[in-house]
Amino acid sequence: MYPLKGKHVLITGGTGSLGQVLVRRLLGGEMGQPAKIVVFSRDEAKQHAMRVAYLHRHAVTDEVIYHNFRELLEFRIGDVRDYHSVAAALRGADVVFNAAALKQVPTCEYFPFEAVTTNVGGPENIVRAIQEHELPVETVIGISTDKACKPVNVMGMTKAIQERVFIQANMRCANTRFVCVRYGNVLASRGSVIPLFHEQIRNGGPVTITTTDMTRFLLSLDQAVDTVFAALSEARRGETYIPRVPSALVLDIAESLIGERPVKTEVTGIRPGEKVHEILVSEEECHRTVDRGRYYAILPMLLELRDGQAAGEALEREYSSADDVMARGTLDRLLVDNRLTLDDAAGHEAELLR
């Protein structure tokens, strides 16, 4: 089955870490060769760098943009906050991946309404444009986060509302399927813990740990895209897909990356808005969670969207990173296999654009 064969795909926030890997996988054709892939974002510098990378050029001048709109991979400047910009980008789109977000916890705390405008207003603009212009969009996939589950910070609160905006949109736009994916911190993404540890180790330390009992799910960028593709292929209207992935102590991650280097760790204390453990399915959501093999699917809270499907009780309690923590040896092998050790980091990061 090739759900994207001949389709027009729009990726909002497509220059981010996830967007770049998503584009690479889409161009590879594993879901079928799209007729068009549009990267929609407001950062012209990141778009230019991404365009140059895909053209395999080292030094370019302005002519690289001249045929932008005729290319399979098209770059479009715009802001998900702006309704008219979003409505114009959606024309002709069959499938939309909404990866545009303000996602850094401290930034959202200091600028909460900015987070609301992007993380809630942006999704609402997508839904409103499809509804008001009766656009024939087939599927919209909202990219969410573990922080939306039992949220304790602004970033998580706004992402939780994004989920509800998209899920309820199935009632506003009868011909469009809206689904979400929710996962934890991605290992190699900008701002995540492993790139931070790499930089601290390169500088001689210390490597900062907020608390020694903190755990995190270990999800690679490719596994994040796998989750997105699974939701695209399998999810029913209003469902939220959750990957089943291993977890580890953050202290073990730091010590594994340090290895034999003379670098110390330092416990700094938990930061405002930070959770000790990531939670992907809350205890309140357990009763409407079903098993989908490598994934869990949370059924929509709105009964009108259940489509006769009964809740499944796939979980007896919340799904937390504290549940099944990997042994240190298993963690070491996982980091090596995913080329996330310090020695492999530069090459791994460079390959994200290939």
Describe it for me?
By secondary structure, the protein is α/β, with parallel strands linked by helices. It has one domain (8-351): Rossmann fold, CATH 3.40.50.720. The protein is 37% helix and 18% strand. The chain is built from 11 helices and 15 strands. It has helices spanning 17-28, 44-54, 83-90, 105-110, 112-132, 154-172, 193-202, 221-234, 250-258, 328-337, 342-351; strands at 8-12, 36-41, 73-77, 95-98, 139-145, 177-183, 207-209, 215-217, 240-243, 247-249, 265-267, 279-281, 289-291, 295-298, 319-320. The strands form 4 sheets. It has a 9-stranded mixed sheet with strand order 3-2-1-4-5-6-9-14-13, with helices on both faces. A two-stranded parallel sheet has the order 7-11. Strands 8-10 form a two-stranded antiparallel ribbon. Helix 6 links the parallel strand 5 (139-145) and strand 6 (177-183). The longest helix is centred in the middle third of the chain and has 21 residues, at 112-132. It is globular, with a radius of gyration of 20 Å. Mean pLDDT is 91; it is low at 348-354.
